[in-house]
Amino acid sequence: MAIAVRVFCLSSQVDCFSFGMFIYELLMLKMPYEGSASLTGSNINIRSHILSGGRPPLTTKVDRS
């Protein structure tokens, strides 16, 4: 049985984006794209949004409860 292997060429931009999403979660106390009406329910929509340069919204509303 053959094992399919995917090879990706990743750059330091991937590390920067991942770190940014980690910091976003710490500051906003929620996961990126959580509750985004236009992106809910589909990883394909989120992926295409990210690849087209979209980022999660930054808001000043933080639930402190």
Model description:
By secondary structure, the chain is mostly helical. It has a domain of 40 residues. The protein is 40% helix and 0% strand. It is extended. The chain starts with 11 loop residues before the first helix and ends in a 14-residue tail after the last helix. 5% of the residues are buried. The mean pLDDT is 76.
Attribute tags:
65 residues, mainly alpha, 2 helices
Give a topology summary.
Layout: H1 12-28, H2 43-51
| Residue-averaged pLDDT | 76
Helix-strand makeup class:
mainly alpha
What is the rounded Rg? Answer: 15 Å
Number of beta strands: 0
Compact overview of the structure:
The chain contains 2 helices and no strands.
